[in-house]
Amino acid sequence: MSQFSSEDEAELQSLLRELLKSVKDRISGAPSVECAEEILLHLEETDKNFHNYEFVKYLRAYVESSLGTVIEEETENFTRGDGHAIGPGQDTLVHAVTKRTRESAQYKQMMQTLKQTMMVVVESLINKFEEDQLKKEEMDRKSQHEQSSSHYTDNCSDSDSSFNQSYAFIKHEQLQVIAEKLDPGRPREVRLEALQSLCYAPPSDVLSCESWTGLRRNLSAALTDPDPELSDKVLQFFAKTFSSSPLNVTKDIYSTIAKSLEAHFLYHKLSFPSGSTSIDANRPDMARLLKQMRLINDFQKEVTTFWIRHPEKYMEEIIENTLSLLALHSEQGMSSPGSEKSLEPIHLISLLDIKATWFKKWMHGYYSRTVVLRLLERKYKTLIVNALQQCIYYFDSCDAVREETLEIIHSLEHQQIGPARRTLYTSKELEFVYLIHSLCVLGRLVMYTNGRKLFPIKVKKRRDPVTLTDLVVILINIMYQHPKPSCGEMTHADSLSPTNLVMEVLRTLCDRTECAVECLYQVPVIETLLAPVISLLKGKLPKLNSLESALTHIADTLARIASTERGLSLLLYDRNLVSAEGESISAAHVVVQFTQRLLAKELHVFSELEIPPGVSGAFIFVCRQMYNTCEGLQVLRPYSLHECIAKAWRTTSSVSERVPTPVPGAPPVITSQELQSVVAWEEMLLDNLLNFAATPKGLLLLQQTGAINECVTYMFSRFTKKLQVSRCEKFGYGVMVTQVAATAPGITALQSSGFVQTIVVELWSALECGREDVRVVHPKSTPMDPIDRSCLKSFLSLVNLLSSPHAVWELLGHQALPNKTEYNLREMATSVIDLMDRLIIINSDAKIHSLFNYEQSHTFGLRLLSVLCCNLDSFLLLESQYNLSELLLQGQRDNVTEPPSGEGEFIIDGLSVERNHILVRIGTVGGPSERRLPPRALQRGNDPYPWPMVSTYPLPKYYILDMPKTLRNKQESEICALLASSKETERDASWMEDCRRQFCKIMATKSNTLTGYVLADFLERVVLHLSSSSTDCFFPPAEYKVVDHSVKTRSLSSVEQLGVGISLRYGKFLKLLREDSEQDLCLLLKHCQEFLSQQRVSVTSELSCFQGGYPGHDWFAASVFLLMHGDVGRSLSLLLRFSRLLPSAFLWPPRLHSSVHLPIEIAQSGIHPIYSCTAHYVEMLLKAEVPLVFSAFRMSGFTPSQICIQWLGQCFWNYLDWSEICHYVATCVIMGPDYQVYLCVSALRHLQQDILQHTQTQDLQVFLKEEPIHGFRVSNYLEYMEGLERNYRSMVLSDMRSILPRSS
């Protein structure tokens, strides 16, 4: 087929037409002719149907008929090898054949024939196209007279693209003709015909032509032409341009429309409707303005998605044209509502985009926000002034205007869509939509720093400029004007309500720290928020349209403010409010007083109003944001809010329990909806009660309400559902669970609720069962870490749960191991004693065989045991009940090779290394420089584990470090001189001050000299002086006669006997005790037990800590015994005198164990003052002084109180060297018991970097419990502690003194 016949040309023309129709959509979207050519050139790559087009099939057949013979010949030549060799660049036969074919004469002849034929076909196609076009234009002109002018709707910006009609490229000469035809002086029909032709042309060609300037001027004139058909045609062209052209093109169109509108509003004053009149959107001039405004508003909302890809000057031009248009405001608009006003662009944009979506989008990105704020500040500040003026007008308007708000909202929210859509808008509706638009603009403006810098703003009728604080006060007052709901309508949540929009602004400001500081954390704002509350407390009903709604919004805002540090401080400490009694108090006092009155229903102004529980719950939540912090609880504690909430909960609970069983046929006593409301209120009260457990002292208050079990059960139900603690809480229940688990009643409640069982079952499932949904062919990877990541969360949960010795005593005390002869493989562990039996104390083959992953599971158990044994009291209980050390030693002895002759060698594996570490840990006592613990990691090289293996006690000497020799000065130290010269002046009041001053001086310069007998003598003299002073004695004197023979008949428990053994080993290591000191230490402990037992109340409780005496070992008495070098007489004498002093309550844990000196409810609570007082203030000071450490604890789910009660409970044994333990005791006795708090804060501050690091590695709990406090010296932090004393002593020490009953 070398030539084409006329039939072939006709067929080609038809096929080409079909191809162009198929790809019409692709071509019509091209912004230029060049782009259209590119689309056609790459059609094969982009169109999956390319090879199915008939035109393509025709061409393929033509190529095959013309070149088929040539291709076959070349292929045969290459396969026979007769042709040219294939070069290195032609590595395939196809490439070689293709090259030869394209060089042939047949190929050149085919291409020439094809080009000539296609040129004829295309020219014929164009001619036919132009004929069709002329015919169509003629038809259009005839039909235009028959069409209605209402054919074009105001949705022009959403109309279909004009490319859905015919598509044609247009020449510049034609555009010149069209521009001339559009001249305003031409007849209407000529201009309309020109516009019709223009709509068919590609917008890129139109805007790039030389005559665009004149064309643009004529289009602007047509846009403002009173003939709606002309203006609609222009808008159609502009709409098509917006949808298919780049920004450099569309910005000109946008500018044209914006400037046209601006000119119209400047030279044609439109009257604002007044009275009963309204504007009609169907009125031709108004319809034209609305259509144009709608088009640019749609473009405003879409342009943000792509203007960042273009030069900033394009965006700046669009923004400036917009602000210039919207900033138009006549002087009448600023005057009083009674004067004649003009309709302005801002009213129309508010009507079309009531929530200012365009402004929100423009302010969202930094790229555009910077330009908007710069232009607002320099040129168009009137836009913001007008918006602010509108809000002030609404705020100052009469009640009648505000009462109509509900009706306006309803009419605007429920407009009909379609032919019957709303077209009439009254003046009040226009003012209202402008108000909503202004609220949205101002709310978005104050979110950003440079937006807030626009304030203060000067407005009319106000003497002083409006500041940011004034704006927020105005917004809050607008919120108070919530329309009163109609009958039967209990809530009002319309999206256009000014109240809800203000609340959105306030919530946004609360969530942004900088915004909240500048806008909300101001005294006038808090005063405005609490003004209705103070009025109600004074017995006056505030002037509010909806009291319930206003109070709920007030509480919501206050709760968000209280959830931040700065906001909480403002509410707690700024005493700028006047109470109902006329006193200056802080906002916290006002809120808690109001909450108390709500719960007790003592507000007399509510006698005729039924305030729903939601309002009370909202204000309780505000209080909760305060009392779940240590500092907030400190302020709110005098109000006993926990008792008020508990009382309300009991009342509500009794109502829900008394609901009778429904009887068929009988009317229900209470409806299901009412019952649901009662249950919801009951759960809300429980939830708020539970949050007292967020702090140590709060947990004591919760325990005193008697509702701790119900609260923990409620917490467990939410915990299992993985629900958030509250909308203001960033973390889950982890911290609260750890806090609760630190006390005996708390861990008992966790056990009874099922929480402990859930944790254990989850652990067992992860450790032994694996993932059930994974097929056997996809086994999980072998864990590389001793504790697999899948089990780490369960491990840390168990560590948090069992961190306190109280938890171990309650869960494991007097619990025997099951030690079954056989274990079912499907039998899961469900309790802590099961874990001890199955994972830790594996003393039989049955236990080994019952585990699927023996080594991994046993390693997990040993790791848990290692952490538990860090607490000496927990270790003593486990050792006394389960003989741990012998079990571990036997495990080591069994883990050796069996050579034919001689002794076997230890097998180094994960279990033997872990056992070795535990044996050294429990076999020695000492601080960081007094003992050496073997690491758990192996080393590279021939000897992977060079540390001695332990299989018998005593330990190898490698693990026991030599005591550093203390250099004694032959001359008496300053303390010795003070003691020698003070015998005559000891009774002077200034003697103790001299002692403290001298003590601080020695600690700062020569703290290493304050040891041994010198320190013992000094402490003895100080205690004697303090106990001889009636002002310094805190506890009433107790008569105790030291009679050795009666005391010797007492017996020590197995726990105490083990504690004696540990104390003796430590004392001998320190060279402080003789070999025969055991009897003396036992005698001292028996005397202490006898003395303290005489001062205990009888407690009837199921808690293990109350079964007998103090459940742990007396580490403080043991420390005093070592301090006195084993002198039992001096030790007992010191302890008896010391027992009268306040420091004994906190340094000596057994001193106040169920003591008669405590209030009976505290003595029976099982919560020691060391936890509820010392640990509470450690957390409080840590948050203020070392906030990074406090935050690290929160993130880890651990609490500072947990580690502090462990340090203090065992008198820092194993955590500090002996010299530092002595300095700790001396500091608290000499400087005051509050130094116990300061020392703990100092220690945590010292560990800050380690704490932050281990928070990231998710092992903070393990690190703090297993590692000693390296490098900490009391003397180095004494000056820091003195600074804490100056700031906090009045609060901490007074609270420590308040542990006695008020009658004492």
Describe the structure.
Helix 8 packs antiparallel against helix 9. The radius of gyration is 44 Å and the shape is globular. Strand 5 and strand 6 form a beta hairpin. By secondary structure, it is mostly helical. The protein contains 66 helices and six strands. It has a two-stranded antiparallel sheet with strand order 1-3. Strands 2-4 form a two-stranded antiparallel sheet. The chain has a two-stranded antiparallel ribbon with strand order 5-6.
Write the layout of secondary structure elements.
Layout: H1 6-22, H2 24-28, H3 33-41, H4 43-46, H5 54-80, H6 93-102, H7 105-144, H8 172-181, H9 188-200, H10 203-208, H11 212-223, H12 228-244, H13 247-267, E1 270-271, E2 278-280, H14 284-303, H15 312-326, H16 331-334, E3 342-343, H17 345-352, H18 357-364, H19 366-378, H20 382-396, H21 399-403, H22 405-413, E4 424-426, H23 427-445, H24 449-452, H25 468-480, H26 498-511, H27 513-520, H28 523-537, H29 547-562, H30 565-573, E5 577-578, E6 584-585, H31 587-600, H32 613-627, H33 630-636, H34 641-657, H35 672-690, H36 696-705, H37 708-720, H38 734-741, H39 744-753, H40 755-769, H41 789-801, H42 805-812, H43 832-840, H44 845-849, H45 854-869, H46 872-882, H47 884-894, H48 910-923, H49 974-981, H50 991-1005, H51 1012-1027, H52 1044-1047, H53 1054-1069, H54 1078-1093, H55 1115-1123, H56 1128-1138, H57 1144-1147, H58 1160-1163, H59 1169-1185, H60 1187-1196, H61 1200-1209, H62 1218-1231, H63 1235-1246, H64 1248-1256, H65 1260-1266, H66 1278-1297
Helix pairs in contact: 1-7, 5-6, 8-9, 8-11, 9-12, 11-12, 11-13, 12-14, 13-14, 13-15, 14-17, 14-18, 15-19, 17-23, 20-23, 20-25, 23-26, 25-26, 25-28, 26-27, 26-29, 28-29, 28-31, 29-32, 31-32, 31-34, 32-33, 32-35, 34-35, 35-37, 36-59, 37-39, 38-39, 39-42, 40-41, 42-46, 43-45, 45-48, 46-53, 47-48, ...
